[in-house]
Specification:
Layout: H1 3-17, H2 25-29, E1 32-34, H3 36-40, E2 52-64, E3 69-70, H4 74-82, E4 91-98, E5 104-110, H5 111-120, E6 126-136, E7 143-151, H6 154-171
Parallel strand pairs: 1-2, 5-7
Antiparallel strand pairs: 2-4, 2-6, 3-4, 4-5, 6-7
Length: about 180
């Protein structure tokens, strides 16, 4: 397969990725849970000036470290345009978040959610971010465009962990006494 064919396949896959999302809980199910640390690990060896185009939907659990603020997004929107996103999302703000291990990380905010984020999110809030992991860069880190979010209380997180633990118990083979 030639580089031109790979680029065409990437463009088609990316256009499908940005297709109109479904509504409600189905939308959240389309996003693959990932950690910020997982996103920062490129799938290929990169030089300092290289960029890996990733193109996948992700759901990230994070803590708000700074309120939304203006952010340059020319590189991100150029990549989206080159990969066939139609329409190209409007992006003019970003936000700093912390991973569960305390690592700081900046995300891009789609303008359609930036205003809501500015009103609803506060420093220290736990959130689940839904978005698109667009690129990896050794110099600048992963480029993630957030297209939605939900706040998460500590109780919600505990309940989710306990549910996974309980499901694991239920599916474990039972021993006869």
């Amino acid at each position: 397969m030639t580089p031109r064919h790979r680029a065409a396949l990437c463009c088609a896959a990316f256009a499908a990725l940005f297709a109109a999302p479904s509504s409600g809980h189905e939308e959240a199910a389309e996003f693959t849970p990932a950690s910020i640390e997982q996103l920062q690990a490129p799938s290929v060896a990169l030089g300092e000036k290289d960029v890996e185009i990733v193109l996948r939907k992700v759901a990230l659990d994070a803590e708000v470290a700074a309120a939304p603020r203006p952010r340059r997004a020319q590189y991100l929107t150029t990549v989206l345009q080159d990969m066939g996103a139609n329409p190209v999302p409007q992006v003019s703000q970003g936000m700093a978040v912390l991973s569960s291990s305390g690592k700081a990380f900046d995300v891009y905010l789609d303008d359609s959610v930036a205003e809501r984020a500015g009103k609803e999110l506060h420093l220290g809030d736990r959130v689940r971010l839904y978005g698109y992991h667009v690129y990896n860069s050794p110099k600048h880190g992963p480029g993630v465009l957030v297209s939605g979010f939900e706040t998460r209380s500590r109780f919600d997180e505990l309940k989710e962990r306990m549910g996974r633990w309980y499901d694991g118990l239920r599916s474990a083979p039972r021993r006869a006494h």
